[in-house]
Amino acid sequence: MSELITNAAVLREAKKPLSFEELTIDTPQAGEVRIKLRSCGVCHTDYSLAKGILDHQPIPSVLGHEGSGVIIDVGPGVSNVKKGDHVVMAPIAPCGQCSRCLNQEGAYCEREEVRGWGILPDGRTPLKDKNGDGVAIGFNTGFYSDYSVVPSTAVAKIPKDVSFEIASLLGCAVVSGYGAVVNTAALQVGHSILIVGLGGVGLSAVMAAKLRGAYPIIGVDTNNERRELGMEIGCDQVMSAEDFNNINLSDFNGGFDSIIEASGAVPAIEKCMSLLRRHGICVYVGAAESTYELKIPHLELVATGKRLSGCLTGEVRPAVDLANLAKLYSAGRLPLDIFISNRRPLDELELAFDDLEKGIGLRTLIVWPEK
Ligand SMILES: [Zn+2]
Ligand SMILES: [Zn+2]
Q1: What is the pLDDT of residues 175-186, one digit of tens each?
Q2: CA–centroid distance, residue 244 to ligand 1 (Å)
Q3: I need a labelling partner for 223 at 20 to 30 A (CA). Which of 86, 127, 200, 315 fits?
């Protein structure tokens, strides 16, 4: 094992074009794996960071956090995967030993909280530029790069009949929607659910709600094509923004048991809280501008027991949820093929951001050839 050269898209300044550079990438250390990327989704969060709408990742950094690939090297002590395995990666690497991990809350692992963004758990970044300066791994992943080094606890092995393209979607969009429904809202059979925003996350939430036996499943989106997709994959009814603004709760038994806010549209968030039934839960996964602060009537929360929960990457337990999602897809239970609308090589990442900005399709994937 030795250092490798990796082609990467480096964010050196927000709102400026990405810099395509050759970086060196470390060998994996204890508990780490090195991966050859095969597919990485272009997520709205990457776009928002590149355009300066969000600013929670260090700069310079390599973004990209919805990836899949092949393990090419493993560091000492890694036992969950081996060289040659096909894997999907999560932006969270639970330590498995802290009190939160032991309480099945690994998405909020104490080690991960201390680690912050842009580095591996031992505090280093595996990437260096031609001057020898470190380049952060955005989201602790850095997948807009030919190779990546991540902790082995962030990866889950996928069966070889699941394509890299589908597998990459599992790591952010799919698990964020699925996890919001299954892990955070803990949706029960027969519960009503409103899903606001039918992008990759929202549509994944629809699929999970259907698997979980929710009724009715109501989807909201401004885009007609996405509403049609919502109906195709499991919504009982869909609404435009206007329908949503004029919603009559008496049609929905006085309010929803669960609401998933996946649009990140600022006015939608506060509206959602008013649409919950008593003790209902609103799971907030859409990301509005960094500076936005929510305004919610606090006494109503006390009087009604309504709950508002954040949800980081579907509160993913990588070894459990990502493996389950791959299994469900293999079995034909998750129609994830609808998500893939375009494929581009890494050097067309800016064009992929344009696809996203123009609302072309659901997901553009950055793909790498086998060799
Ligand atoms: Zn994402
Ligand atoms: Zn932990």
Answers
A1: 999 999 999 999
A2: 25
A3: 315
